[in-house]
Amino acid sequence: MTDRVTASVIGASGFTGGELLRLLAGHPNVELVEATSRSYDKKTVGSVHPNLRGLDLRFTTPEDLESVDVLFTATPHGVSMGQIDDFFEIADTVVDLSADFRLETEAQYEEWYDGHDAPEYLEKAEYALPEINRENLPGAELIASGGCNATATILGLYPLFEDGILDGSEQLVVDVKVGSSEGGAGGGEASSHPERSGIVRPYAPTGHRHEAEIEQFLGTSVAFTCHAVDMTRGASATIHAFPNEPVSKRDLWGAYRGVYGDEPFVRTVAGGSGVYRYPEPKALTATNMAEVGFELDPSNKRVVVFSAIDNMMKGSAGQAVHAANIALGFEETAGLEFAGLHPVGAP
Amino acid sequence: MTDRVTASVIGASGFTGGELLRLLAGHPNVELVEATSRSYDKKTVGSVHPNLRGLDLRFTTPEDLESVDVLFTATPHGVSMGQIDDFFEIADTVVDLSADFRLETEAQYEEWYDGHDAPEYLEKAEYALPEINRENLPGAELIASGGCNATATILGLYPLFEDGILDGSEQLVVDVKVGSSEGGAGGGEASSHPERSGIVRPYAPTGHRHEAEIEQFLGTSVAFTCHAVDMTRGASATIHAFPNEPVSKRDLWGAYRGVYGDEPFVRTVAGGSGVYRYPEPKALTATNMAEVGFELDPSNKRVVVFSAIDNMMKGSAGQAVHAANIALGFEETAGLEFAGLHPVGAP
Amino acid sequence: MTDRVTASVIGASGFTGGELLRLLAGHPNVELVEATSRSYDKKTVGSVHPNLRGLDLRFTTPEDLESVDVLFTATPHGVSMGQIDDFFEIADTVVDLSADFRLETEAQYEEWYDGHDAPEYLEKAEYALPEINRENLPGAELIASGGCNATATILGLYPLFEDGILDGSEQLVVDVKVGSSEGGAGGGEASSHPERSGIVRPYAPTGHRHEAEIEQFLGTSVAFTCHAVDMTRGASATIHAFPNEPVSKRDLWGAYRGVYGDEPFVRTVAGGSGVYRYPEPKALTATNMAEVGFELDPSNKRVVVFSAIDNMMKGSAGQAVHAANIALGFEETAGLEFAGLHPVGAP
Amino acid sequence: MTDRVTASVIGASGFTGGELLRLLAGHPNVELVEATSRSYDKKTVGSVHPNLRGLDLRFTTPEDLESVDVLFTATPHGVSMGQIDDFFEIADTVVDLSADFRLETEAQYEEWYDGHDAPEYLEKAEYALPEINRENLPGAELIASGGCNATATILGLYPLFEDGILDGSEQLVVDVKVGSSEGGAGGGEASSHPERSGIVRPYAPTGHRHEAEIEQFLGTSVAFTCHAVDMTRGASATIHAFPNEPVSKRDLWGAYRGVYGDEPFVRTVAGGSGVYRYPEPKALTATNMAEVGFELDPSNKRVVVFSAIDNMMKGSAGQAVHAANIALGFEETAGLEFAGLHPVGAP
Predict the structure, then answer these.
(1) What is the pTM of this model?
(2) B141-165 per-residue burial string, b: 16 or more CB within 10 A, e: under 16
(3) Are A236 and B200 a contacting pair at CB < 8 A?
(4) CATH for D148-309, among 1.25.40.10, 2.30.110.10, 3.40.50.720, 3.30.360.10?
């Protein structure tokens, strides 16, 4: 372990890549070395990410990468699995933000994606989410940052399974609302402002690939539906669960506090006063914090769980840095301390 | 029956009242006579509703109302039940847009509201939604316009019950997203722009009063949760249903087409090409149209139903005028023909 | 003149084309015959414009157009000038919504655009804006619908010139704010939702082509700057004028009322009570109405003029139909009566 | 001078107060002691500002304030002038974010506000904006943080005056667009989401009080008009200037670079490639950075200047902390390093 590492970002012109640049450039233990983008080679990173105009860094191409300690890869799904050997030529630690190493078996990739090119790495990979995998992260060489919707869902449900309130035999409905940054940079008609603003649009109404991650970590399938709504950042999961046994608010508080009481990046918010009484993405904009909360519906024997994150942070780049901090022995919260904003427009 | 009636609106400075003014002023069979508002007495209706600046009409107080054929009442819940005798002094037909006459029994009002002041009218009242109550509307004297969220939910589920795909024994989760106009005019901290924009905010996470209407008309309870999102108009219900028997897309198309094939104000939208593949409030802005649609999730034995409306139109004022058209023997679509907009910002 | 004409729309899959389809399909004197789109040939118009799902019409290609009375052309700038002879083969009246016939001379097209392919038509063309060109529209065969920003600016300034409050020697600053529909359908990175939402973005900060139209009709140049803001429809011009002589509010009311007092589609809004005290695009969504207003700034010897329109309506499709109504001898307001909405989210 | 000071915030439940709490809680040289709010006495600051839920701090009342080194006061205009003696009982340094000490003379307060209760303090007060007043800030005891719109305007124009491109004899039009946080917390009908979203609304069309500050520091009056647009944070000033002598882009780059070349919180952005070519509030969300830029309009002999800030940061709380850093001898950028976000929804 060292106090300071060098790091580069592959796929740095995308939204997630830009967020990584921002976090790494401000990280006390990291020296940001290179940022790759074929399309923007030689341009300043600030020409793509205006918040980084003050950063003296130009995009390079992946072929020119020099060796670093840690490589963050923010390429589209399917790219990393084909280049993973090359990545390890460059760095000892690879943190991949795509879906390529999240699932445990080749069979899952056959079922949910288009198979896998480097299945021998699957066993080696560690899922980034520290709240459920912290013990395996120190020293991890290949870290797979989780999917944003899966992250929100898993964080919302995990305490109920840990505490035995749910056991996997119950009906679970997960209704997710996400912002436009999940679609990535670049555009397209459906994500153009005139068509995308003000919507409540079902997308991936069934069969969303994040179901695979959720099932892998919770041990049960969920009925998952995703909607695009008018925000840029943010993912919010509302989970409708029907426990087999009656459950009280005290039970729920016990479950959430028990599991997350010492977590630096999870808060339980359930009721209380004021405008923001349950988890909301807006209250978490730009932070690595997840908020989880719940409400009881006795007449329907239902527990409603709310889970909210900034999909660019806890849902991708922030989670990746958090996991890397643990892997490399840094303070868990290093580079991730931003408190968030109030008020803020759309996340 | 006559070709032309006189009509006035009580509570005309609110959002629903303003929508009624707009519809009635443009209705070929209606002469709009008076619009009441204590707060804005003697001011032009255009000073509150800027779209009606061209209308030569000033607010009056309810005490000064002259007799008309039809009275539309858009007062807060609990007001109409106390004044219903007075309303019938003024008009032969009363169309109430509050919740005061939607439920059938005093017991329901004891359970879901604060009781009822005029329970003798409950039996007389007809629920406005023509798709489920058309046969009782001709000649109706007291019409109770449905709740917006209940309307979206009922329209989405009704064909599944009618067709026997659901029988009431199944788990039903209804996850609703609504715009800020549901909160009514006037403001308050939670609905101020800085706090309300860009949100996905759970409100009425459990125990929403519209559950009562839904249960009354579908004969089964639903697990209902509502979220405020960043639009002004619009309500969108995503319904997660788990039929006891396997169901095919053909079955679903059959159910929806069978029930809504001849309805002037319901369209079935499920899949297809382009940007708008499922029901969305945005595509229905300013129209009285509901869109319903569905998707199959075989791996979870689930049917996902989407239902979208403009809450100010099909969800309140438009539904009220539609029902009044039937009650009074006019063309069903009279005054409600606006096709909607593309593109439009937020609904 | 006849009571009813046939009409087709070329370029009907774009935003302006879709708006034309909506207006013509609901027009009492028009039978909508064909809608062309090469990209969407044979698809329903509702697959592109979801508000028109109820319309039984499929896109065709321009080559297949049958003869109609009126042809509305909503093609990109530069297309109509190359096909204008063909257009007149199909129809006796052509209403063009591009910039191709707005300017009077070939020299202007050399200066502001890339020249002109059919300059012989320029003299024949009539500018659509009825408020300044009504007398030349009856019987017009080629109508050039004005630019949206030019329309807002001209309507705001015209009374001051007509009344002699301005004479063309004064400094005129025009600061315009527009919605994303001005960029047209299709998208691109700058108009993608994540990049386009919540912005105040200078675009065309100087040298905007609409300056040419403004100068042509007002006889003076204006210092014009345009900003993109977060709405979809709508154009708002704030005009800062410095009259040579002192002017009173009474003078201004006189000028605006004198010129627009009998106009069906212009309202003067200046001060008053309530939330909407000056012209705002939001209050005009979906209408063909322009609102103009003003405020005095005695300490700076300035008149501030506000002018707002729905750029899709008064700024393009609505203006085109209005002008066609006059050209063909119909009621001026036929098909354009929609009152607008309150509340509405973003225009 | 010391390495660490204690600080409290008066008026901490408002938007500006909350932003101060966030900045001070994260400031390396500050120990945040108390936060006052009469309305929320004893409640956690996180119950009002959800981003501060992790902060272990409850509101107190002003009467209970203990002595601190620095007092930040975020009360409505007119309050601080009446309590300034009390403030100095509590702290040696007072940083006031209201308008109460921005102007230099009692006469100005008579002209632009309702007079002044403590004119003896006016001479003592230092305007916070370091870019124009840095030399007077070290050791300052009373600091007056500038108005957000004045800040944007002054920063945009200052280099043109410093460089002699403007001398005060020219016509200056300032057209400002601001977000809803400028209206403060609490709401009201005009700022309710249904009425406030999607707007381009003239407010303070003439006679805006910030003209006084601008005139005081630039030595010339400006023709100032403000519009509310759909964002929460952010102020953007477009300044239309007509220099007496021809000016080139090189001249302008020289002026801006000369004045701001070493400023830590001002960037010049003018043209270039990509989506963000000129200053935009969105690119500056949550930062203390101002961006200024320009474009030439030779045909109108005009220079268009764009200036953008986050009104909650550079426009108030960030500026206040920046000035306090200088006054107290800290690093200028301490506590203000956040880089901003890409993408972000509405600022």
Answers:
(1) 0.97
(2) ebbbbbbbbbbbbbbbbbbbbebeb
(3) yes
(4) 3.30.360.10
